[in-house]
Specification:
- With 208 residues, this protein is an alpha/beta fold.
- The protein has one domain: 3-Layer(aba) Sandwich (Rossmann fold).
- 29% of the residues lie in helices and 22% in strands.
- The protein has helices at residues 49-60, 84-97, 110-123, 167-174, 195-207; strands at residues 6-12, 15-22, 32-36, 64-68, 103-108, 130-134, 154-159, 182-184.
- Helix 1 runs parallel beside helix 5 (195-207) and helix 2 packs across helix 3 (110-123).
Length: 208
């Protein structure tokens, strides 16, 4: 993302996890954000533009942002595991990069599905400061509910014209929880032409 981006080699259940860490320019870090990418079998990587935009928003707000490649992507070992192994690897990564201190989680598409389950696991043992779910893949996977005490700390963003994950499926997931969803008019799944808006909405949530 910039010259200050650091490459990390971490360990997951299947071996090496390839990751990148970005830190605020002033070196003052208020916590760690771990960000998950879209579906590994459809070109999803930690270099995805939405994932990079999420990292920028966190860094802009004083967080160090760690994004990583799921198993079988890039230099990360292992093979696709339908979200189970991916969640286990994300939990292992959190233990290594943020064993303590303020923690935020974010994910895009398949990554939002994985992040929902990781958030459920993490919230039972330590506080979560922020949760950001973008283009949540609710039409394709069973997304975990967000605990009521996390609702105020959670931002669910979805494009009105998302042709990959229909908005209706996200509303069906959110409705029983009374979990608010922020809908961006006219935007599709990958936020083409609207990444600055995405960054600004996420930054606003992080500063709230």
């Amino acid at each position: 993302m910039n010259s200050a981006t650091q490459s990390l080699t971490l360990q997951g259940q299947s071996g090496v996890i390839e990751a990148l860490r970005d830190v605020p320019a002033d070196g003052v870090v208020r916590g760690t954000a771990v960000i998950a990418h879209p579906h590994p079998l459809f070109g999803g990587t930690m270099q995805n533009k939405v994932v990079q935009t999420l990292a920028r928003a966190f860094v802009q707000c004083g967080w160090q942002a760690v994004r990583f490649n799921f198993r079988g992507v890039g230099a990360s070992a292992g093979t696709y595991d339908e979200g189970r192994g991916e969640a286990a690897d994300m939990l292992a990564l959190i233990e290594q990069v943020a064993p303590e201190g303020p923690l935020a989680l974010a994910g895009f598409s398949f990554g939002a599905f994985v992040t929902s389950h990781v958030a459920q696991s993490v919230a039972s043992v330590r506080p979560l400061e922020k949760l950001v779910l973008v283009g949540t893949a609710a039409s394709r996977f069973v997304v975990a509910p967000v605990a009521p005490e996390l609702h105020d700390k959670t931002l669910v963003l979805h494009g009105e014209q998302d042709d990959t994950v229909p908005l209706a499926s996200v509303m069906d997931w959110a409705r029983p929880q009374s979990l608010p969803v922020m809908v961006i008019p006219g935007v599709e799944h990958f936020f083409h032409g609207q990444l600055p808006l995405l960054r600004s909405l996420v930054a606003r949530h992080l500063r709230a």
